[in-house]
Amino acid sequence: MRRLNKLIQSPAYQASLAKTAAMEKERVYCKHGFDHLLAVARIAYAYLLERKNTDYPREIVYAAALLHDLGRWVEYQSGEDHASAGARLAEPLLQAGGFDGRESALIVTAIKEHRRKGEKDVSPLGEALALADDWSRECRDCGAQNTCHKFSPTMLELWY
Predict the structure, then answer these.
(1) How far is CA 36 from CA 30, 70, 92, 96, 127, in A?
(2) Which of 43, 79, 91, 149 would be a feasible disulfide site paired with 132, CB 3.0-4.6 Å?
(3) pLDDT digits 0-9 by tens, 62-75
(4) 3-class state of residue 24 by DSSP
C-alpha cells in the first residue's frame, strides 16, 4: 500500500480535497471528503470480493475509489462532469505514485464510469465504484432526504 500512501500524501491530491471541502462547506447533502472516499473503497472492494472477482487487487480498487471524486471542485467551478475531470487529474497522480500504464488505465476508466451504474459497457470496477458511491451514503440519518436526488425510501431497505 506504499503507492496509495504516496498518492494520498501528494500535494496535488491534498489540494483537490481542500478545494472540494471549501466548495462544499455550506452543502446540506453528502460531502465528498476523505471519509466518503475511504468508505467507497471499502465497499467497492467487498462488493468485488463477494462476487468472486479477483481481477482487481485491493490497491487498484482503493486507488480508484480514493480518486473517484478528485474532479468535484472542477465541476463546482466550471460545470465539467467531475468523473471526466477526475480521470484527467488522476493520471499524473497515478504516474507519480508508481502505478504502471495498465493499472492507471483500469483506474482512470473506472473513475470515468463511476456515474454510469447499470449501463452495459461499464467495467466491473466502474460498476463497483458506482454502487459503493451510493451505498456509502448515510441516508437513514440525513435531514435532507426529502430534497436529495440520491435518496429513495427503497434505498434504506437495501442498506439497512
Answers:
(1) 9, 12, 22, 24, 17
(2) 43
(3) 999 999 999 999 99
(4) coil
Dist CA 84 CA 78 (whole Å):
12
Residue 154's CB is within 10 A of a number of other CB atoms, namely 7
What angle (nearest 5°) sits at the alpha carbon of residue 108, between those of residues 103 and 111? 130
Contact 150, 139 (CB under 8 A): yes
The Cα 152–Cα 132 span in angstroms is 16
pLDDT tens digits, one per residue of 24-57: 888 755 777 899 899 999 999 999 999 999 999 9
Q: Which CATH class is domain 30-159?
A: mainly alpha
Q: What is the pTM of this model?
A: 0.88
Q: Do residues 30 and 117 lie in contact, with contact meaning Cβ atoms separated by under 8 Å? A: no
Tell me the pLDDT tens digit for each residue of 80-134.
999 999 999 999 999 999 999 999 999 999 999 988 776 789 999 999 999 898 8
